[in-house]
Amino acid sequence: MAESTTIITGDLVVRGQRFGIVVSRFNEFVSSRLLNAALDALQRHGCPPGNITVMWVPGAWELPLVARRAARSGKFDAIICLGCVIRGDTPHFDYVAGESAKGIAQASFDADIPMVFGVLTTNTLDEAINRAGAKAGNKGADAALAAIEMVNLLARIGQEKPRK
Ligand code: INI
Whole-model pTM above 0.90? Predict the structure, then answer.
């Protein structure tokens, strides 16, 4: 008989896992809305408030180091990075957004736990507000769901039922 394909997915149920949220104070009007939505999503999916730790950093540039340090503490199953970088008239945007994204990816590989990228990179404040609870949903909630899915997916790899 032909063997069937093994499919592994992560569901959206929190089962005692602990989440770290690193959030940047720069553009705090936006990032605080991302944070509130992430907290709400985690709790709606079964995470008690006591299993969540929020760490504030000055700006998106500082997210990777704190995310990495938090991951290496061994206290978290996933790290959610939240922030908002808005394009201005200088090339600063490209450096901050690019290095933040690269640094978070690197930190996730280094620490071998999921780190999700909930950093808005937009042309205008309006675009950012639309993605932080207005017209285009809330990327903070999306980031929290991605973190839950990833911890559950990773837990299931290697746990699949043996073939008969
Ligand atoms: N940090 C942000 O999070 N968003 C921005 O839009 C931003 N801009 O435009 O400058 C920004 N800069 C600060 C940066 O992240 C660092 O905190 C700062 O350079 C100190 O290291």
Answer: yes
